[in-house]
Design brief:
With 244 residues, this protein is α/β, with parallel strands linked by helices. The chain is 44% helix and 14% strand. Strand 2 (32-37), helix 2 and strand 3 (58-62) form a beta-alpha-beta unit. It is globular.
Length: 244
């Protein structure tokens, strides 16, 4: 069912992994899709092709989400391509793990510049371009709930994203714009670099007995982006199969 026909979705960091699954799902649901990528244009082109094969339109736009000027250009190109934006999914992040007493300030600054500030700037642009009834969906991290060693800066940046989410939901609610965050549990992507024995432990701790797949997260995003998600805002939605 094409629940998003006539809508345009901008999905950041959507050339691979969870972002790709979200872009392809929203396209399958009828939305035009702006596929954002930083450097892998070939991968972004594959996502565009998949969206178009499903019957929707798509464009790929390069933008470094740690660069405020590039974020502004991303929105300008999205509006130029489709006349506006109705749904924004902030999926981007810079991920680096390290002990609390070992992570360099340079790494800390980059994590927060991309993950927290980049989302804040994107949300500012979204608030300006979205029509009444629009959607902002931020992808956070299950580690903000069940933090593990080595993730202090990354999970701290994602916690900031969650605060942006709840605050913006109050500020934009009078326009019918919903703002929610999705917190994925451990999800099988090419960026998942944990040893097999840890995978087994995580599966054992997950109520549904398996790792998450990118399509699982995309389905939650599609619900929040669609008409059935109209009464949910300011929520931090745990999507971890019972792990979180």
């Amino acid at each position: 069912m094409s629940t998003l026909t006539g809508k345009t979705a901008l999905v950041t960091a959507s050339s691979r992994g969870i972002g790709r699954a979200i872009a392809e799902r929203l396209g399958a649901d009828g939305a035009n899709v702006v596929v954002n990528y930083q450097s892998n244009g070939d991968a972004a082109a594959q996502v565009v092709a998949a969206v178009e094969a499903a019957g929707s339109k798509a464009v790929a736009v390069a933008a470094d989400m740690g660069d405020p000027a590039a974020i502004g250009n991303l929105y300008d190109q999205a509006v130029a391509a489709f006349g506006g934006v109705d749904i924004v999914v902030n999926n981007h992040a810079y991920i680096e793990f390290g002990g609390f007493d070992q992570l360099s300030l340079e790494s800390y600054d980059k994590i927060f510049a991309v993950t927290a500030r980049g989302t804040f700037v994107s949300m500012q642009h979204a608030a300006r371009v979205l029509p009444d009834g629009g959607r902002i969906i931020n992808i956070s991290a299950g580690g903000t709930v069940a933090a593990g060693a080595g993730g202090s800066a990354y999970h701290g940046a994602k916690a900031a994203v969650q605060q942006f989410t709840t605050t913006a939901s109050k500020e934009l609610g009078h326009r019918g714009i919903t703002v929610n965050a999705v917190l994925p549990g451990t999800t099988r992507t090419d960026g998942l670099i944990i040893p097999p024995q840890m995978v087994e432990q995580l599966v054992a701790q997950t109520s549904l007995g398996r790792l998450g797949e990118p399509e699982d997260i995309a389905a939650v995003v599609a619900f929040l982006a669609g008409p059935d998600g109209r009464w949910m805002t300011g929520q931090l939605v745990r999507a971890g199969g019972g792990l979180i």
